[in-house]
Amino acid sequence: MSPTRQAGDTATPEKPCAYRAQLLYFKARPGDTPEDGSTVWLSDGLLVVEGGRIAQVGDYRQLAASLGADVPVVDWRGKLIVPGFIDTHIHYPQTDMIASPAPGLLPWLEKYTFPTERRFENPDYAAEVARFFLDELQRCGTTTALVYCTVHPGSAEAFFTESHARNLRMAAGKVMMDRNCPEFLRDTAESGARDSEALIQRWHGKGRQMYALAPRFAPTSTEAQLAVCGELAQRYDDVFIQSHVAENQAEVKWVGELFPGHRSYLDVYDHFGLLRRRSVYGHCIWLDDMDRRRMHETGALAAHCPTSNQFLGSGLFDFAAAQAAGQSVSLATDVGGGSSFSMLQTMNEAHKVARLSGYHLSATTMFYLATEGAAQSLDLGGQIGTLAVGAEADFIVLDPQATPLLARRTAGSESLEELLFALAMLGDDRAVAASYAAGRKLHQREGSPARSS
Question: To 10 degrees, the CA torsion angle through 39, 242, 442, 122?
């Protein structure tokens, strides 16, 4: 059994349990001052979980006396409990090809991505990778992700089966692509729609599973396939849509040749009814202001993937332009183009990308984007991404003393911003002491014991 899983941990625990630690969550996007009410930070807080949901949250001194004598208190003092991270763009089939060298996106797809994804025609292989992938997410503190499978329906079955067994809040979908790809990874407009609809009916809303329609990107779908995808999106208006847009300039040029007559790459998706709430587009680097405003108007979400964009040399995301247009932005790892499963490492690189374009992205804002901000943009506000009462109890425990350097730096932190910035710049999976989903501990880092009372 994987070291990140607990024996018998499949059902939601019904008995109440309390957790004592610093607590952090957000009510809105952080403003310029810590007094604006957007951020809740309790230096000695108590989180009470019952039936897989947050039952109480507040100052330890105020809540502790009201706890029943039979309610255990897990003592994480010295550590910080935050909502579980939300990764809005990641490919589970690319786990085994992470850190593969190539001169750019399109050659990388041909040499590494497509041959690796072919292996998912084997259901046993798909199941083994799904187990490792989810272990790795939990180890890095990610409790929700928007996940790409392969073109094989069995790859989605394997993912959902494993996610459901762990009672995770996940969205995933089989990739749809009917051209400009190897024959061994090709579906058709008809089969792609049929397989996707069958998966929606089987998995969307089953437990905590959610479906995401996943046309890989416009160049690998015909107009007929994008049209049937749009029809499914209209028929099942609460499923997610995920794809890629404007990742690099060669790709943008290719889309212009494949879809003449459209104003932009994004306009191709818009034409087929694929821009709406719960639609998430990876990268969004080479958009113009009209594209950004259109994403704002439709409620579509940009998944910023800084480690991937730098690894593949795709370009720098423009935070200032996104903010000016009101475009919703989230953070994502984009494994395996991205080089880390860690959302802390993703924050590290996002901050640097922003600085290169003259924009300051604060640590507080990055933690918001990876939790409450993503949840709100995905229409999951109040369910995940928060420690507020009534929310699903997906949370993680961060250890500011996880490494000697991190301990030394955080010991001198004089504000929440300094503490979070140190975690983002110096932290990785080692900083995640434990991960909980629906109130059940699914990962605890070796050497990071909590005290129970």
Answer: -170
Q: Tell me the chain's radius of gyration from C-alpha atoms.
A: 21
Q: Which residues of 427-437 are buried (b: 16+ CB within 10 A; e: fewer)?
A: bbbbbbbbbbb
Burial class (CB within 10 angstroms; exposed 0-12, middle 13-18, buried 19+) of 69:
exposed
Tokens of 302: 């940009």
pTM of the model: 0.95
What lies within 8 Å, CB to CB, of 346 at 6+ separation is 87, 305, 306, 307, 331, 332, 333, 338, 340, 370
352, amino acid identity: K
Q: β-strands 73-83, 53-59: how paired?
A: unpaired
Residue in the structure block whose two tokens are 């437990």: 207
Residue 111, helix vs strand vs coil: helix
What is the rounded CA–CA span in Å between residue 189 and residue 331? 31
Inter-residue contact 273 to 234 (CB < 8 Å):
yes
Pairing of strands 279-283, 240-245: parallel
Alpha-helix runs per DSSP H in 54-188 = 60-63, 105-108, 114-118, 123-139, 153-166
> What's the CA gap between 387 and 132, in Å, rounded?
27
Distances (CA, A) of 65 to 31, 40, 359, 448: 34, 22, 46, 27
Q: Which residues of the chain have pLDDT under 50?
A: 1-12
Among 238, 244, 240, 234, smallest CA distance to 272 is for 234
- Please tell me the predicted confidence (pLDDT) of residue 107: 85
Instruction: Tell me the per-residue pLDDT of 290-347, one tens digit each, with 9 for 90 and over.
Output: 999 999 999 999 999 999 999 999 999 999 999 999 999 999 999 999 999 999 999 9
Of 304, 314, 413, nearest to 86 by C-alpha is 304
Contact 136, 341 (CB under 8 A): yes
Cis omega (within 30 of 0) for bond into 336: yes
Per residue in 178-210, pLDDT tens?
Answer: 999 999 999 999 999 999 999 999 999 999 999
C-beta of residue 140 within 8 angstroms of C-beta of residue 429: yes
Residue 138: which of 210, 211, 85 has the closest Cα?
85
